[in-house]
Amino acid sequence: MLFLTEKIDPWGSMSITDYDHVFKEFGLKKYPENMLLDHYLFERGVIIAHRDFDKVFKRISEKKPFVNITGIASSGSYHLGHKVDVDLFLFFKKKGAKNYFAVSDLDAFLSRPDSKIPDLKTAKKFAVKNVADLLALGLDEKDIYVQSNYKKRYYEFAFELSKKITKNTFEAVYGHVDLGKMGANFLQYADIMHPQLEEFSGKMPSVTGIGLDQDPHARLTRDIAKRLPYGLEVPGFIYFRHQSGLQPGSKMSASHPETAVFLDDDLKVAEKKIKRAFSGGQPTIEEHRSKGGNLEIDLVFEMLKFHYPKTKELEKIGEEFSSGKMLASELKQFAIDFFIPLLKDHQSKVKDNLKKAEKIVNG
User: Domain 19-240, what fold?
Assistant: First the structure.
């Protein structure tokens, strides 16, 4: 449980479970039922909180443009947790957004330890793989920019923002002062706000989808936006429920390969990971038939909740598992039959997009 004296660590790998505490402590609004949109992430309660998303919701309802900005640090291969960010980004793109997806190679180099990202060359190598993933998942080249290969005004803006934060403010929010992470954060703030500059899309409401662990970034970004001379709309955010790792107590993390199914996993490895994932099934078949499975703790069903597109079919599977009609092994096989073809198809598309990705990253 998080206590009042603790800080949320946006670079950590532990999951947040005490949502009500975080809502109360940091002033997050629970996501309301009157703002549900036509995507399963909203229908299934995966989207749980927001900051000023009502402004973007209004723009969607009125068919007016808004800024859709997100990004992922190029510190490793993408996993299913990252795919949720991309799925939501693509959904907002279909709703008429102005789209900016940051492939954050500078962020990765600055904020990750040398043992993981020893130099910018390594971050850019990951960036190529990440861009190929994004193209394979359905983004267009024009939706994507790479931090180390972008427009001059973006870097000017990042330096402007660096004068808006003091050492004491950074330490109060994050609990430490790490110069590399401070540099990475200036870029993150610029990522979120620069689309509203006149040199880009101009002033309008924006949305960034993040996990609750990223809220420190959101709070500082919003604070800085209010103190800039550009009259920007205060950036809006919506928050995902954490997608757990394959074992209890962790989120899917690129830093801990055993916690996640990666988009580039060998198919046999991915299948083994799903089979070994923590189950909510009972110890014996007899007990399971009698008592039923526990969907609240079953991490395979949670994976399906975040990714399987057919809600009614998933509800039926949940009912069968919780009643004991479907065994844990059968649920895992259903997940394997869904995820393995998905990964196989994705990996084929990645190969087709590698040359284009290299050009996007390296120019």
Answer: Rossmann fold (3.40.50)
